[in-house]
Write a structure and sequence with these properties.
With 222 residues, this protein is mainly α. The protein is 69% helix and 4% strand. It has nine helices and two strands. Strands 1-2 form a two-stranded antiparallel ribbon. Helix 7 packs across helix 9. The protein starts with 14 loop residues before the first helix and ends in a 6-residue tail after the last helix.
């Protein structure tokens, strides 16, 4: 068997990926709320593509956890169930604890400066959707600062679902929440800068607990 027959031909980034990017962006911008239907015919018309790339894009988004499909309903934006919320919270907490410890132990001052820069940018967020993007970007910076490749890959695997989690949270209540976010994240960054692992772990846990409480009405986040 020749080497050529051992591997599949390389594929460039295709139209389905671009369609997935557009639909994902629409979900994150609030154009499609949790539970909203994603009809292939409407999407193909709006995006000026055939239904094939739309169908492939929806499958990609389903793998990311942003879309769910059912034979009687078609594709819809994922509406997080109480079990989804609990699982995401517990997994995020486990990953975040390791990330915080790794940042405190291994991150350079420049790495932490990148985290601080994202926290400072939150003051300029124009609306709640941009604030959620900043929140996700902050955690991106934390995982990058941990300098742990597999940990960062694990975060990327749930990143879109956490984004949806945060969007669901602001959909429940924004009373005083958005005004507090920048200061909360500066406090998180300051604990990392101080290399105080225990203080940072406590602050990150409290940060997660607030969102969990709003979504579930309980305080059993940890």
């Amino acid at each position: 068997m020749s080497d050529q027959g051992k591997v599949a031909p390389a594929r460039r980034r295709g139209l389905a990926d671009e369609v997935a990017d557009s639909i994902r962006e629409a979900i994150f911008s609030g154009a499609y709320a949790p539970g909203a239907q994603l009809r292939e015919v409407e999407l193909s018309g709006a995006l000026d593509v055939s239904r094939g790339p739309v169908r492939e894009a929806l499958l990609k988004l389903e793998r990311e956890g942003l879309v769910r499909s059912a034979w009687h309903r078609g594709a819809t934006v994922t509406r997080l169930s109480p079990d989804d919320v609990a699982e995401l919270d517990s997994l995020r907490g486990a990953l975040e604890q390791l990330a915080v410890r790794e940042v405190v132990a291994r991150a350079s001052d420049e790495d932490i400066a990148a985290v601080e820069k994202v926290a400072d940018a939150m003051d300029r967020a124009a609306d709640e959707h941009e604030m959620v993007r900043c929140d996700i970007a902050f955690h991106d910076a934390v995982y990058a600062a941990a300098r742990h490749r597999r940990l960062e890959e694990a975060w990327q695997a749930i990143r879109c679902q956490v984004h949806l989690f945060l969007l669901t949270r602001i959909g429940r209540s924004t009373d005083g929440h958005l005004s507090r976010i920048p200061a909360e994240h500066r406090e998180l960054a300051a604990a990392l800068r101080a290399r105080d692992a225990e203080a940072a772990l406590d602050l990150f846990a409290a940060h997660r607990r607030e969102a969990f409480t709003v979504l579930t009405g309980t305080t059993d986040a940890d």
